[in-house]
Design brief:
heterodimer; A: alpha+beta; Ubiquitin-like (UB roll); Alpha-Beta Plaits; 2 domains; five-stranded mixed β-sheet; three-stranded antiparallel β-sheet; B: alpha/beta; Rossmann fold; five-stranded parallel β-sheet; two-stranded antiparallel sheet; 6 helices
């Protein structure tokens, strides 16, 4: 989580988002300011209350007159910025990112436990993905159903690392982490032991509540049945980070 | 009295799908009557015609391309339809039929025809089209003009798409349906 300045030091900055004047605290990110002002920027790995990861690149924005792209979740608002969130180029890139996520692993919405409540599925609709233009990779990943209450289906994982961060930063267990690189990258429990054998997992289920897709789910859920409730996070996050 | 509008010709087919998208098309219920005023269904599993006419205005393909016959039909539709629509998740993204892509074809055939039978295990070769090694969405083998995702696309979504086309507009299916809907 980005450190917030104490009240006495806070300065207010003025910037434009999509030609609209907005004000922000200088310790806020562009994504936070946009959300406060009801301006929707698509995102996947970002979760309010956890540290910033900046991996999914869906929240990329650009500045007027500047060709560089920056991730809105990891860039602080600054005086005089002119942020553009939905240029043709950004729409094109976001669509391609979502298509690549669909092509990389097995995301068959119709038979997924998260059908109808999936953030990836919603992003497809939001970003105009009506089909995937690249070939599907069709690589097989395994399913670990060894835990008493939960299972992880790596075929549905998008490597957002929300599970890794919430387990470390909020629960304090650090059961989850990442292993491997590129297409071999996957989330693991303990030192790549089956989840059910994990000594560090407390079974709190916070990872399951935050998973954006059908990768982490409760046992006994069938297609479209997995409901999540992430309301606990802002409260716990405030308590953990309170001075 | 104004001259009647030229009726739009429409053809439909299903490849590797469950026919659910066609059921969803029929689920537009009484709007079928309105559809019949503007559209002639000239070839479809729902009508008797056995031959795809040389030139059709709109072609709807349900199902993924899984066999040599599917591939032939998809190419035939592309050749003869001016506007080709991928209807439903199987046609759009492979969906459930495409899940066999995660296994080699031989392993799939063995599971279906050898491992799980009690008598005379053999892979059928006569009277059935040969399976392709890889299941593909329709746009993997021919160009597609419009994608209508959904499993199946809701009847209202199909009606929206067809009525917009009849009115001469290009519909935006993602306003009314999505993957897995």
């Amino acid at each position: 989580m980005m450190k917030q300045a104490t009240a006495s030091q806070i300065r207010v900055v003025t910037l434009k988002i999509n030609d609209r004047d907005v004000t922000a605290r200088e310790d806020e990110t562009i994504l936070q300011v946009a959300r406060e002002n009801g301006i929707r920027i698509p995102s996947l790995c970002y979760v309010e209350g956890l540290s910033v990861w900046g991996a999914c690149r869906l929240c990329m924005v650009e500045f007027a007159g500047d060709h560089r792209l920056v991730a809105a979740c990891s860039t602080r608002a600054a005086e005089g910025m002119e942020v553009l969130t939905h240029t043709d180029r950004l729409r094109r890139y976001r669509r391609m990112i979502v298509e690549l996520l669909f092509a990389e692993r097995n995301h068959v919405c119709a038979v997924c436990v998260s059908n109808g409540r999936c953030e990836l599925q919603n992003l497809a609709t939001e970003c105009g993905v009506d089909h995937v233009r690249v070939p599907y990779r069709t690589a097989v990943y395994h399913v670990d159903a060894s835990h008493d209450w939960f299972r992880v289906d790596h075929n549905r994982c998008v490597l957002c690392t929300r599970c890794v961060r919430v387990c470390d930063e909020i629960e304090g267990a650090h059961t989850w982490d990442l292993m491997g690189r590129g297409m071999n990258c996957q989330v693991i429990t303990d030192l790549h032991k089956p989840w059910g054998e994990s000594k560090s997992c407390t079974g709190c289920g916070k990872c399951v509540q935050l998973c954006p897709t059908g990768a982490l789910v409760r046992h006994g859920t069938s297609a479209g049945e997995m409901e999540r409730d992430a309301d606990f996070l802002p409260y716990l996050s405030r308590m953990r980070h309170a001075e | 009295m104004s001259t009647p509008r030229r009726r739009i010709t429409m053809a439909t087919t299903w490849l590797d799908g469950c026919s659910g998208c066609h059921m969803s098309l029929l689920d537009i219920d009484e709007r079928l009557v309105a559809l019949a005023r503007d559209v002639d269904i000239v070839y479809s599993p729902l009508v008797d015609a056995k031959q795809l006419p040389d030139s059709v205005d709109v072609g709807l393909i349900e199902g993924s391309v899984s066999t040599e016959e599917d591939l032939h039909k998809a190419r035939l539709f592309r050749q003869h339809c001016r506007f080709l629509i991928s209807l439903g998740d199987c046609a759009v993204c492979g969906n459930v039929p495409g899940m066999r892509n995660f296994f080699p074809l031989d392993a799939v055939l063995d599971r279906a025809y050898r491992e799980n039978v009690q008598r005379n295990p053999q892979v059928p070769t006569e009277g059935v089209p040969r399976l392709l090694e890889l299941v593909q969405p329709v746009h993997g083998v021919v160009d597609v003009d419009l994608f209508v995702p959904g499993c199946p696309p809701p009847a209202d979504a199909i009606w929206h798409v067809l009525s917009e086309l009849i009115a001469g507009r290009t519909p935006d299916p993602l306003q009314v349906t999505r993957f897995g809907k």
